[in-house]
Write a structure and sequence with these properties.
2 domains; Tachylectin-2, Chain A; 8-stranded antiparallel β-sheet; mainly beta; Jelly Rolls
Amino acid sequence: MLDAKTCRKANTTRYFLVVALVGGLALQALSAVSDPIDIGSRRELFIDNALIASLSGDARQQLHHPVAREVAVEHDADWEGTGCGYHNVFQDGDKYRMYYNGRHLEVLEGGKLSVGRHPYYLCYAESDDGIHWTKPNLGLVEHNGSTENNIVMKVGLVGGVEADAAHAAVFLDENPDAPADARYKAFIRSPKPLGMWPFKSPDGLHWTPMSEAPVLQGIGAFDSQNLTFWDPTIKQYRAYWRVFSEGTTTTDVWKPAGYRAIRTATSDDMVNWGPHTDLSYEDSPDDELYTNQIKHYHRAPHILLGFPARYIERGWSQSMRDLPNLPGREMRASSQERYGTGLSEGLVMSSRDGVHFKRWNEAFMPPGPERTDAWQYGQQFIAWHAVETKSHMPGAANELSFYAAEGFWHGAGSTLRRYTLRLDGFVSVSAPMEGGELITKPILFEGAQLALNFATSAAGSLKVALEHADGSPIAGYALDDCDELFGDTVDRVVTWGGNTDVGGLAGQPVRLRVQLRDADLYAFKFSNEGQK
């Protein structure tokens, strides 16, 4: 029989053998998943977990919300009707351009839905600053005997083909090989056969179909804003369109089943499309997504951002009856209950491959304070896409402008309200005064400086260390070497003992360790001196 001392020694030996074995396997697993991510000189955001290895202390990812500003556009013209929607906004040099549908929806006494007061139109507005908008008289389409309006096209024959101009997505084509007569593109619904028409234009006003037949036939419902755009990362066009999960379609009709979902495919020319697939999400329920509003983020084009509208049918309850404009809600519900009890709000989601998305389940743009034009079906449908505008505070950095519908489908018309958010400000790594720490996954970078987009309180702070991929320190770049950062800026260069130069570490696997106290870190970017 072994004595107690011998048993303890044997058990200790077995323990360390197990630890060594498990540790070796863990190191192999860590090595397998920690190959450095080559970010080059890209700007990286924290809207997903792609670069986050760990958060400790009280650090966490914090979703931020756009702030409501002024009404950007009053949809008060007769041809705009009560249901303007599916807004498209983009910057074109010194000009901001906006396209949207004009349609009239009205529930009459007895529950009859009236939609035929005038044809559905595609309308146009423009701005020099993205804040103040005008609706020019284009002289293109007649309404009630006059062409003095801002209508670009109407439902019916467009360029010789049958197109539903009320379901359109218009964009400035960033494909460097796009010819002059195709500088602007549009994706417009075909009612029959059911599909999408690709269109081109030299000026954004006069349009020509690009194909002899609708594309994407039979693989979608398309009863929403379906869109396409040039993705500079993959150098192809991406399309995103409405489908009902497990639904069936033919070339003429769709039969919904399941819930409203989103489908995608890619193309070299917007005419011939590759295989399609449905979007997937991490840790998200099967919400009804009415629109998708996906496009690459202009400051980080490798990241695709979507601002879908979440649609919810809450049914009748005391809270529903306590919401604004009960008589109008009951009138709409007399046609279909969901017209009165449905609600909508804006979400945000991101992807790096265009198919799998990180979707934030909390509302990015909730309905907001109760008022006449809020808390109803059609509110907070966010325009496609965010644009960069001057700050509302003189001297401050530029900000992002979003535009969202309100007052949809009641009264004489609807409005489009502008919202603002700091650049890159969707999600931050945030910590309170008690402090927290972020460690990134190993990365490879290009450049000689590291700049951050961050905000602290007057007493808060932020420090950054550059470490080897295994976590061992790099001389001169430890937390103790970092000069404390505080302020509120979208672009501050990090210094270590007054030194900004990190060029000697370029191309080597490193990781960032960031300590935060009452601070938010939104983005970081390596670049050469003088580059933003």
